[in-house]
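Summary of Year 1 activities. Much of the first year was spent building the evaluation harness for sequence design. The harness presents a backbone, in tokenized form, and records the residue chosen at every position. We chose the following record to illustrate the format because it has been used consistently in internal testing since the harness was completed.
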């Protein structure tokens, strides 16, 4: 017998299985009340446990969702840091090299041509020395803002470092290559406005064509770099194709 019920029965004179006759109805009433209250208490506890269980499950799912969302954001952020130039947001050198290797393999399979352009801003050091590196950084950002919308979706634009950029034109012919390059060069003929400062900054460009000039990444990069420096020697603000492109 339940201890609480036993104590209540003892108050009514219940002892050794017997109770006073005049307390029989009281005894029945008490037993009925006790078990009714016990049922209510059990139902309340079950409801509380069920509610708590639901709340715990909802809380768990909420925390799980937040955790997964935070993890996805972190992964995306790390991916961006690993593949994008932190200043301008375009591909960095490491991501470009991966894309470059992929384009080379694809072009070898399909027999298509592409052109690699090495761009270096003219007199950029003077900008940094005169106005400070903050203005120089803003100029680099403006260069990307102007060039990126004016190239094709399939082309690749990357920052090599400092004021050096790489531009890869895929699936080109000799005719459309000249047109694509001319469009880029024209973008640098309009003055740049940074923090209210008007600057006439042009670019020297070296161009190499796959597979005419070379068929691997190292040689293509080296020859594009050589052509760019030749452009600097010839007075800047111009395009120099590697020797085989001049034919």
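For this record, the design step produced the sequence shown next.
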């Amino acid at each position: 017998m339940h201890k609480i019920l036993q104590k209540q029965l003892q108050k009514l004179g219940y002892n050794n299985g017997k109770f006073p006759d005049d307390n029989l109805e009281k005894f029945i009433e008490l037993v009925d009340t006790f078990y009714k209250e016990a049922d209510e208490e059990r139902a309340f506890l079950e409801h509380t446990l069920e509610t708590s269980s639901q709340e715990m499950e909802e809380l768990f799912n909420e925390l799980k969702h937040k955790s997964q969302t935070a993890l996805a954001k972190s992964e995306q952020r790390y991916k961006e840091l690993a593949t994008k130039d932190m200043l301008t947001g375009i591909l960095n050198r490491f991501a470009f090299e991966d894309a470059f290797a992929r384009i080379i393999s694809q072009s070898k399979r399909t027999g298509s041509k592409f052109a690699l352009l090495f761009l270096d801003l003219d007199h950029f050091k003077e900008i940094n020395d005169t106005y400070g590196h903050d203005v120089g950084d803003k100029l680099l950002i403006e260069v990307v803002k102007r060039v990126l919308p004016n190239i094709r979706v399939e082309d690749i634009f990357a920052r090599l470092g400092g004021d050096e950029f790489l531009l890869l034109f895929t699936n080109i012919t000799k005719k459309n290559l000249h047109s694509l390059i001319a469009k880029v060069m024209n973008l640098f003929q309009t003055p740049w406005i940074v923090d209210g400062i008007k600057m006439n900054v042009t670019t020297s460009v070296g161009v190499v064509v796959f597979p005419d000039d070379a068929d691997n990444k190292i040689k293509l990069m080296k020859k594009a770099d050589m052509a760019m420096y030749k452009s600097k020697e010839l007075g800047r603000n111009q395009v120099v194709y590697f020797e085989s492109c001049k034919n």
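The chain has two domains: 3-64, 93-246. Quantitative recovery figures across the full test set are reported in Table 2.
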